Amino acid sequence: MRERSVLIVGAGVAGLSAAWWLARGGWRVTVLERAANLRTNGYMIGLSGPGYGVARTMGLLPELERVHRRIEENLYLGRDGKPLLRMRYQDLLKGLEWITLSRAELVAVLHRALPQRVEVRFGVTVEQVHEAGDGVAATLTDGTSVDADLLIGADGIHSLVRALQFGAEESFARHLGYRVAAFQAPDTLGLGHDFLSYAEPGRITELYTLAEGRLATLYAWRSPDHAPVARDERQAVLRAAFAGAHPHALRWIDALAPNEPLYFDDMTLIEMPRWSKGRVLLLGDAAHCLTLLSGQGAGMAMASAAVLAEELARGEIGDALARHEARLRPAIRRLQDRSRKIAGWFIPATERAFAVRNAIMRWAPKPLLAWYFTRSVRSEILVAGQDLDLPAAQDRLLRAVAA
Questions:
Q1: pLDDT tops 80 at residue 346
Q2: Are 146 and 135 in contact (CB under 8 A)?
Q3: Helix, strand or coil for residue 380?
Q4: Sign of the CA dihedral 347, 350, 352, 355?
Q5: Among candidates 274, 257, 389, which has minimal Cα distance to 321?
Q6: Which of 271, 280, 268 is nearest to 9 (CA)?
Q7: Is residue 19 predicted with pLDDT exceeding 60?
């Protein structure tokens, strides 16, 4: 049988996961990444449910557990610095399979796990894509061209592949009315395994230890604006959004050097009527961004890549892409609905809603709160797993792609 080839655009969680699975299935894999190297910015993520199961199947759990950041307690402070509430994560996550790590660490682990035969090219991306018989022909930004049986756009929420093949981003973007920023700073707090949050109506700042000597920040706020913000203006926009916040929340913004990486984006869902067109497929955030509120974006990207490889191993590419989407879409729809519902709880808009949320979290019996939280997470995991039809015997995927 002729060796099949795939061109993957984007070296993030979705792209590298797809590269791992398809290379294991005998595909010739080329990965393009627009950046000069693996991205190091982003925020902390939790890996659970289908994503955790797929990581186990891939043999990645030992290395992921080495970079796992154990969370003991999240202390919420108000604008005046006084405690609002405390949450003990170990009580809430009891009995759940869960790994907390930075998105950059997950990407690095996936990259190191790639088979040697996978070619990863940095500093280049696609410029044009054309149907070419039973495949695609892609012209790249470095002037070269690549022919492949399948092209996968795994290049994130602002996907160039999606723009080239499916239409403008605004046709598929569903803005939730929030913005988010994240960056790293020297650790002068010594938080250890704790999170520190400054919460107010309409905005929140979270600080946590990312690695030895490094502190991670996450800023999220309500905003009616969703127009792109130029890189050299983002720090000023962030500073203005948090005017009047606690001095500690502002201190990290003011100390950020102009040349330091600053992640800045809107909380936006991507909703599309279909994720493939001919021999071009969108994967991960490019197809169905869930936002950080879902807690399942990275995991679902990994699960999606595994399901794709299983379907491709069963036969013809076009039919495989249709089966992949049919299995994945119900879970994505449920998780996107959850993102819409949870946004107001994560960042209450009004003083009243803020006070009610805090009172519930502070005074509800802790066993009841833990039960409700774990029940909610378990329900998400169960539904997603059933929708995807991920096997109870986790080696089925490996047998399928190795057949």
A1: no
A2: no
A3: helix
A4: positive
A5: 274
A6: 280
A7: yes
Q: Residue 194, exposed/middle/buried by CB under 10 A (0-12, 13-18, 19+)?
A: middle
- Which residues, at least 6 apart from 381, have a Cβ–Cβ distance to it below 8 Å? 48, 49, 50
- Strand pairing partners for 328? none
Determine which of 9-13, 79-83, 166-170, 280-284 has the lowest per-residue pLDDT on average.
Answer: 79-83
- Give the full edge-to-edge strand order of the sheet including 119-122: 119-122, 28-33, 5-9, 150-153, 280-282, 276-277
Given a contact cutoff of 8 angstroms between Cβ atoms, the answer to whether 388 and 328 are in contact is yes
Higher-confidence residue of 180 and 75: namely: 180
Work out the end-to-end distance of the chain between its first and last CA atoms, rounded to an integer number of angstroms: 12
Cα–Cα distance between 230 and 227 in angstroms, integer?
10
Q: How many residues are there in the chain?
A: 403
CB contact at 8 A, 246 and 79: yes
Pick the closest to residue 18 from 334, 295, 282, 329 (CA basis): 282
| Exposed e or buried b per residue across 129-168, where buried means at least 16 C-beta atoms within 10 angstroms of its C-beta | beeeeebbbbebeeeeebebbbbbbbbbbbbbbbebbbee
